[in-house]
Amino acid sequence: MDIKTIEDVALLARLNLTPDEISGLRGDLENILAYADQLSALNTEGVQPLAHPGDIVNALREDEVVGSLDRAVLQRNSPKSDDGFYLVPAVLGEAKLTQE
Amino acid sequence: MSLIELSAFELVEGLKQGQFSAQEVNSSFADQVDLHDSKLKAFLRFDRQECLEQAAKIDSTGSKGNLAGIPIAVKDVICIEGQKTTCGSRMLEEFVAPYDATLISRLRKSDGVFLGKTNMDEFAMGSSTENSAFGRSCNPWHFGSVPGGSSGGAASCVAASLTPLSIGSDTGGSVRQPAAFCGVTGLKPTYGRVSRYGLIAFASSLDQIGFFARDARDVALILNESAGHDQRDSTSSREPVVDYLGSLGSDLSGLKIGLPIEYQSEGLSDEIQASVVEARRVLESLGAEVSEISLPMTQYGVAAYYLIASCEASGNLARYDGAHYGFRANCQEDQKSRSASSTPPDANRLLEMYCQTRSKGFGPEVKRRIMLGTYALSAGYYDAYYLQALKIRRLIQNELRETFTKVDLILGPTTPTPAYRIGEKSKDPLSMYLGDIYTVVANLAGIPAISFPAGFSTEKADQPAMPIGLQLQGPAFAEAELLKATWAFQNATDWHQRRPVLDGVVG
What we know:
The structure holds 2 protein chains of 2 kinds.
Chain A (H helix, E strand, L loop, with lengths): L2 H10 L6 H18 L34 H5 L5 E2 L2 E2 L14
Antiparallel strand pairs in A: 1-2
Chain B lengths: L7 H9 L5 H19 L2 E4 L1 H14 L9 E5 L26 H8 L3 E6 L33 H8 L5 E6 L5 H7 L2 E4 L19 E6 L2 H11 L29 E5 L9 H16 L3 E5 L7 H16 L14 H7 L11 H13 L2 H14 L5 H21 L5 E5 L15 H6 L5 H6 L3 E8 L10 E7 L5 H14 L8 E2 L2 E2 L1
Helix pairs in contact in B: 2-3, 5-6, 7-16, 9-12, 9-13
């Protein structure tokens, strides 16, 4: 596993990694994947993948109007919110951040 | 006799008969927390005042719930309305749960008293509680050894008599392994038996809430109040709930127990193997028929588990984006110190905010699993890793279903070794993962499993005698059979009654 691969995966996972973290992860992931390679030795042709251990399907319920959680209470946990909106850094153009 | 020496079942009886009050019970356990938790560090948050107020209310209203006045400690992965729920992570350090988990609502109706929130590996990822962002917890039998994990605090506080009952979560063994390390009884119910609404997700097809107590009767007591369908958890089962307490008994005549030959693998400590042999003898003396069986697929459990769990975690933890709740990195300050970033320099600041937040909010093990999962799900590797792991999961479940047509329960070790010393495995993730070899299979297959005390290791130069736990696994929804067999074993042995000596004070 090369450093470029680690960096690409880190971007997909939305992580910034330091050079030390990258070299540590490279060794760890190589070890773990080498161990996991024993799975490839098994013939699984025709085996249905099992994503969920239960036998239940399509949990249905009556279509009833019920209360929902209070927005103001939920937004108390937000790092930055204002008047019901979640605030994040600007995503369009070159606009400066107004809230930070 | 001190109240902290009584089991939850005995406390319920005593409270009903008016031998003592809920306030007396709770202040006894609160005293024990005050006395020992500064060293044990089982609790992340403990509020004596709040706990005694709940108890006073129960005394004054004469509450008749089945757990009226019984202290319950809760792993900090389960939401209690208005209380911090951190998951052992900086990411949720300031998170205040806006609602009760369904399990908490049910236990409130049963008049249980919530004693506090217990320490854990960050996002339940780990087997030693060394991955908590808020410091390690200790094993009450030896403060230099780990309590196991990820529910290490919840196991430790039952072992040290800080509470008679506690709640944990088990994704790959996180209830059973710390139960074994701390010398208590720990049940992982069938997937879907207990609602996961309000349990912070790690790997959704594997996660299940479980319980710690001294003995199987206490586990049956709290499971009776907890099990059942919940509309808010679409994976919770509609299978009828049985009376687990009423199912207990001491006669195991006709019970068929299988002993997998693969579980006597290299790496299993001789002392634990000896405990398996001794437990077999005890169970046979109670009427059970024990025979050797073969489970060849189980050797692939750890590899399949770590791929599947990490893939699911990488998706579940994508929600921690610094926008809706939890920690957000201060990006402007961070711009200058950015080094070797995987983010292109022209990326927008929202992306930068996400990346900085997640890099600073998550600890090393969580990052490792997110990276492993993201890699295994990425184009070109999906079939080889994730899909192949899911196919092997099917083969493991098939093998167990076939086995349960021949035997009722499976007996084996919970862990390959007793609790190890703090720091002994924290630098080698794979060696820690391999410690989960006997527990992950039950999560992959969705079946119930229980760990119970069954012996002690011999004293070593750097470690006193440590508890040994054994595991019984059963087919889906066989909790009653697991609890009955464990309770029968506990009636014939006294391993579960041994308590650690804390600072010379016998707890």
